[in-house]
């Protein structure tokens, strides 16, 4: 499971990094066009919104893989070793449950908005919801990988 997740992790890193770079360039372009040439481009805002969704959702998935998600470390560190394993397992089970909820909720929204169009861009509105669908699959896979690693350590 580690190798496919390694590939997925690197693809998310590249996608999120490129999205951040493009977002930065778009914002600079928009500011220059607005305040120097008094000609604000209309397309920047809807593209920027899509890029922010990519960065936020893929960034969240990346932090799950790295184990950098929000946790109660001060509480967990004070537990005995078996309690720490139970707490980490519970945390990853909760993340998997959250990923499943995001997946089905976003999938439903994508299906509902497929025929609607994003103004100015003309792309399907569903694109905004496909990004969280992809990220939720990654979150579930990364959490499952961490869960397997946790129990592999327990048995060693």
Automatic annotation (TrEMBL):
InterPro entries: DctQ, TRAP_DctQ. Keywords: Cell inner membrane, Cell membrane, Membrane, Transmembrane, Transmembrane helix, Transport. It is a multi-pass membrane protein. It is found in: Cell inner membrane. The chain crosses the membrane at residues 7-31, 43-64, 85-109, 129-152. It comes from the Bacteria. Residues 24-151 form the Tripartite ATP-independent periplasmic transporters DctQ component domain. Signal peptide: none annotated. The complex comprises the extracytoplasmic solute receptor protein and the two transmembrane proteins. Belongs to the TRAP transporter small permease family. Part of the tripartite ATP-independent periplasmic (TRAP) transport system. This is TRAP transporter small permease protein. The lineage of its organism: Bacteria, Pseudomonadati, Pseudomonadota, Betaproteobacteria, Burkholderiales.
């Amino acid at each position: 499971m580690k190798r496919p997740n390694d590939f997925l992790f690197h693809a998310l890193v590249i996608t999120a990094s490129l999205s951040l770079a493009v977002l930065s360039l778009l914002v600079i372009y928009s500011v220059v066009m607005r305040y120097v040439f008094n000609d604000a481009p209309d397309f920047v805002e809807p593209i920027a919104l899509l890029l922010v969704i990519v960065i936020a959702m893929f960034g969240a998935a990346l932090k799950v893989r790295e184990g950098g998600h929000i946790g109660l470390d001060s509480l967990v560190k004070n537990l005995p070793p078996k309690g720490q394993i139970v707490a980490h397992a519970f945390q990853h089970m909760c993340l998997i449950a959250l990923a499943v909820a995001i997946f089905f909720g976003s999938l439903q929204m994508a299906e509902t908005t497929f025929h609607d169009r994003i103004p100015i861009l003309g792309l399907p509105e569903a694109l905004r919801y496909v990004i969280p669908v992809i990220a939720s699959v990654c979150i579930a896979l990364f959490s499952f990988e961490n869960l397997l690693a946790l129990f592999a350590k327990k048995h060693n």
